[in-house]
Amino acid sequence: VPYHGATMAAADPEPVELLGRPGCHLCDALWPEVQALAGRFGVPARSVDIEQDRSLHRAFLWRIPVVRHGGRILAEGRVDPAALDAAMARSIRDDPVARRRRRHDGRDAPTGPE
User: Fold this and answer.
1) Distance between CA atoms of 83 and 75, rounded to whole angstroms?
2) Coil, helix or strand at residue 31
3) How far apart are CA 3 and CA 37, in angstroms?
4) Between vectors from CA 56 to CA 55 and to CA 59, what angle results, nearest 5°?
5) Confidence at 17, pLDDT banded by 50, 70, 90
6) Cα Rg, the chain, nearest whole Å
7) Which of 15, 32, 63, 100 could bond to 44 as cystine, CB 3.0-4.6 Å?
8) 49 beta partners
9) pLDDT over 70, % of the chain
């Protein structure tokens, strides 16, 4: 039986992710900012426990907290909220799903010949 939800999932916006681990005070402090960031850009927020995945643990243990979107690392360690906001704006601008949604909504649609 084919999975019919795949098409819809492909159109869903990429979540902004906070990679961290339990007991990380920087991660705990950054989570509300990541949730607010996700809300400003209309994408979901997801917290990822690196201790649940050996490869994530190996790659990010000494870098957490790490904020990423669409596989792109936006910030790590002590995070400047203004820099994170700018990095997320660039990531959203470069996200093909978000670009399609903006054109469909009429926002950011070209106003003249390209």
Assistant:
1) 8
2) helix
3) 32
4) 85
5) very high
6) 16
7) 15
8) 20
9) 73
Q: What is the structure's pLDDT at 36?
A: 96
Instruction: Retrieve residue 28's tokens.
Output: 């705990």
Residue 81 has pLDDT above 50, yes or no: yes
Match 């979901």 to its residue by tokens.
44
Q: In this predicted model, what pLDDT tens digit does every residue of 45-75 receive, in sequence order?
A: 999 999 999 999 999 999 999 999 999 999 9
CA-wise closest residue to 39 among 13, 59, 57: 13
Beta bridge partners of 47: 18
How many residues in the chain?
114
| Beta carbons of 59 and 73 less than 8 angstroms apart | no
Residue 54 amino acid letter: R
